[in-house]
Amino acid sequence: MLLTIDVGNTNITMGIFDEDTLVGNFRLTTKTPRTSDEYGICLSTLLDKYHIDSEQIEDVIISSVVPKVMYSLNSCIIKYLDRVPTIIGPGVKTGIQVNSDNPREVGADRIVNVAAAYHTYHQACLIIDFGTATTFDYVSDKGVFEYTVISPGIEISAQALWNQTAKLPEIEIKKPDHVLAKNTINGMQSGIVYGYIGQIEYIVKNILKELDTKDVKVIATGGLAKIIFPETDVIDEYVPDLAFRGMKIIYDRNKKALV
Prior knowledge:
globular, five-stranded mixed sheet, six-stranded mixed sheet, single chain, 7 helices, Nucleotidyltransferase, domain 5
């Protein structure tokens, strides 16, 4: 079995693959400082939930954009699983060429998503990741990561609204039944969600216009993508486990290269 770990700015997600099947997943908050033993307890809980013995985990691969958690997390993997994890970065084969002014600026999370999309669909793809930031990453039909757009995530936008105003409350982010609202909470929900849908549609339509093509598969991933995906026709598919798939694909490519 393969343990895949995606360390994002807001959450750490762990997924377990048995061959090509994702058999379990788990989510932690990133911002809570943890020791290697605390990570180990969380990991043990995940394995117990799915009735998996630690000895069944043959390898571990990690995608991380938060360096400060890596020492404890890496120590946890070595201590509790007796494995040295593969960490996605320079030297790891992804099958993706990065055509950027500064390729080292591109986070591992985005490489993982692009690799998953391209190697799964074998065509040009636009990946919209609804994370702490919302990223729009374009990979060509030749497997070249060429363009990106980055905007504040839904939660960041919402937090700015209630943190910077004296009388607006913290609310649940969900789509109200109507754009027009008769109370403050529904009014905020309308502005946040419908406003974000409008932003997504505008950016996607203009990306496709500048690319001068419609032959691009638009894929949404990330926790809050499930709110936006059903409300627009500019997104073709919602793939919640895209990062796990990407890490599995990258792991397989590197394992074959060593054979």
